[in-house]
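[Discussion] Sanity-checking designs against the backbone

I'm trying to build intuition for which residues belong where. Below is a structure token string of 214 positions. I'd appreciate it if someone posts a full sequence so I can compare it with mine line by line.
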């Protein structure tokens, strides 16, 4: 985190955003008067998203171990999608697709990647259990099935690592963040990527498919 902070602080300062991630307060100068296009600065400081929204998106990225050293690219992605949604959670998912190369490069830097997937019927079940609430969307899954899912993903990760691979869990885009939320306490270091976040050059070896018992 110190290296990240030093890299961020080396950028010319236009505005400061306080970004809290993993209990650490990161002070990151994110807008440069010379490096960031005017349309991006206008989009970020407008009432559409504002600095508070930017802070939450950066926080979400950092919480999943995604580096924000390419602040210019991230901010441009935020500005491009800010007119689509004000929800920082949904906005983060859109930004992730724009910085897919960074995400994949970060995962690949860990070593040989072993991919864990979810059975199509399990994917459909999770998608059907996504419900809209007052504080956003959430998966309302039968507790026994949720426990079984978490247990089987954790076991697949252990087997993948034992085989000499770094594990990554792949899901469809609509359920990615929900699955990550369900498994993060059992396997906090496990990257959860959507299929449409993968770049063509990324090297993956399929290691396991998780399904639920009937």
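Best answer:
Here's mine. Compare freely.
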């Amino acid at each position: 985190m110190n290296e990240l902070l030093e890299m961020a602080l080396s950028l010319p300062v236009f505005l400061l955003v306080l970004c809290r991630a993993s209990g650490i307060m990161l002070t990151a100068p994110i807008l440069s008067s010379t490096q960031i296009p005017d349309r991006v600065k206008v989009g970020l400081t407008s009432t559409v998203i504002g600095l508070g929204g930017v802070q939450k998106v950066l926080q979400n990225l950092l919480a999943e171990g995604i580096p924000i050293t390419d602040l210019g690219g991230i901010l441009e992605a935020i500005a491009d999608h800010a007119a689509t949604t004000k929800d920082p959670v949904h906005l983060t998912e859109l930004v992730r697709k724009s910085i897919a190369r960074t995400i994949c490069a970060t995962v690949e830097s860990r070593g040989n990647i072993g991919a864990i997937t979810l059975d199509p019927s399990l994917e459909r079940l999770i998608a059907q259990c996504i419900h809209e609430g007052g504080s956003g969307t959430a998966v309302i899954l039968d507790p026994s099935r949720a426990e079984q899912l978490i247990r089987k993903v954790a076991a697949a990760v252990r087997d993948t690592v034992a085989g000499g691979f770094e594990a990554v869990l792949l899901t469809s885009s609509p359920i990615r963040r929900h699955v990550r939320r369900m498994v993060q306490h059992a396997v906090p270091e496990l990257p959860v990527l959507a299929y449409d976040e993968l770049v063509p050059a990324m090297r993956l070896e399929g290691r396991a498919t998780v399904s639920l018992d009937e």
